[in-house]
Design goal:
By secondary structure, the chain is of the alpha+beta class. It contains three helices and seven strands. The chain has a seven-stranded antiparallel sheet. Strand 6 and strand 7 form a beta hairpin. The longest helix has 17 residues.
C-alpha cells in the first residue's frame, strides 16, 4: 500500500509598488543586475551567468537561477531550494494614464508565511525607494 503524502502547495502572492523614477534604464539596472539588486534587495548579490547568489548578513546565502527575463520589462528567478513550480518575478509596469511606473512582485509563500513574504517585500521596496526609485 502506498502512502498518500500531501505536498503543501504555495500561494501566489502579487504585490504592486509605485515608483518615483521615470527612468526605465535605472529601474532595469536595479532589478536585473547584481549591483542593482545589492543596492536594495540583499546585502550582496553576485552573478555567474544565470546563477545569482544573494547574501544577507553574515550567515544567510541563497542561490537563484534567472529563469526568464525580458529586457526593460521583467526578471524571473527560481530559488535553488524551492519547488520547481515557484519563482519570484519583478515586473515593470507603466500606467498609461499617469505615465508613472510601478513594480509588480509575484512570489510564492506557504499559507502561514504569506504575511511574512509581504512584509519582506515591503521592507525591500522601502530600501529601493531610498535609492531614489
Amino acid at each position: 500500500m502506498g502512502t498518500d503524502k500531501t505536498i503543501p502547495t504555495k500561494t501566489k502572492v502579487i504585490l504592486e509598488y509605485g515608483l518615483s523614477s521615470q527612468s526605465i534604464p535605472m529601474i532595469w539596472e536595479a532589478i536585473a543586475t547584481a549591483p542593482g539588486l545589492t543596492s536594495w534587495f540583499a546585502d550582496n548579490v553576485e552573478s555567474d551567468g544565470k546563477t545569482f547568489s544573494f547574501t544577507w548578513g553574515k550567515n544567510e546565502t541563497r542561490k537563484a537561477e534567472l529563469i526568464n527575463c525580458r529586457q526593460n520589462t521583467y526578471v524571473r528567478f527560481r530559488w535553488d531550494d524551492e519547488d520547481p513550480g515557484t519563482f519570484f518575478e519583478i515586473r515593470i509596469l507603466k500606467n498609461d494614464l499617469t505615465s508613472t511606473y510601478s513594480l509588480q512582485i509575484t512570489d510564492f509563500a506557504d499559507s502561514e508565511a504569506e504575511d511574512d513574504v509581504r512584509s519582506l517585500w515591503d521592507t525591500s521596496m522601502e530600501s529601493l525607494r531610498r535609492c531614489g526609485l
